[in-house]
Amino acid sequence: MFPKKCSEYAILAIIPLAVWNIVVNILLYFPNGDTTYAANNQLTNYVWYFQGICFGGIMMIMIATVLLLVDFYKCCISGCSGKKRFNIHFPKLGSMTFATLGVLFSAYTLIISALGIAQGPYCRTTNGWEYPFITNAGGYLADSTLWSQCLEPSNVVQWNLILFSIQIVLSTFQVIICFCKMICDLKYAFCGTHRILTQVW
């Protein structure tokens, strides 16, 4: 388990991971840089789940931003002499909730990417447009000679395999970071780890 401070600073890593998730997901729409297949809906159905753009990307950036604001939030109201100071403590239940959402969103990206690899690409074969590897439960990965069945887009098996694998790695790191954050926040949930310094007359 990460120490408390390490888990907080590790949240910063979620932002570049999320940006790369968005970039990789966008690349999946354009095999070999060709926009024709996206326009004709000739892509594997798992690229339309927006796992990298929405859940592993935009939502994770929002969650990381909220977690950073919560962890490093300090409020101090300057006052005059004669004012009385007191501290208000806030448990980290809210932070733990967002960390849990981070685990769920990144796990969704991981699962969809893994399913995309297991199913294989949607491509044109001698029988027309189809999923040629959908019945062998990912067995095509161990036999690269089968990849030539996909005539169009060219090298689509490698394209999908590399990009979906990158998404799996990125989202795995996000899951680990958010899970460690969630555990740390659970540990300190009732310890009053957030303190707001206020002053009253």
From TrEMBL:
State what protein this is by name.
Answer: Transmembrane 4 L6 family member 18
Q: Which PANTHER family match?
A: TRANSMEMBRANE 4 L6 FAMILY MEMBER 1-RELATED, TRANSMEMBRANE 4 L6 FAMILY MEMBER 18
> Which InterPro entries has this protein been placed in?
L6_membrane (IPR008661)
Coarsely, its chief localization is membrane
Q: How does it sit in the membrane?
A: Multi-pass membrane protein
**Which family does the UniProt entry place this protein in?**
Belongs to the L6 tetraspanin family.
The answer to whether keyword Transmembrane applies is: yes
Subcellular location field:
Membrane
The highest taxon in the source lineage is Eukaryota
- Bilayer-crossing residues are 9-28, 48-72, 93-118, 161-180
- This protein's species is Pyxicephalus adspersus (African bullfrog)
> Lineage from the top down?
Eukaryota, Metazoa, Chordata, Craniata, Vertebrata
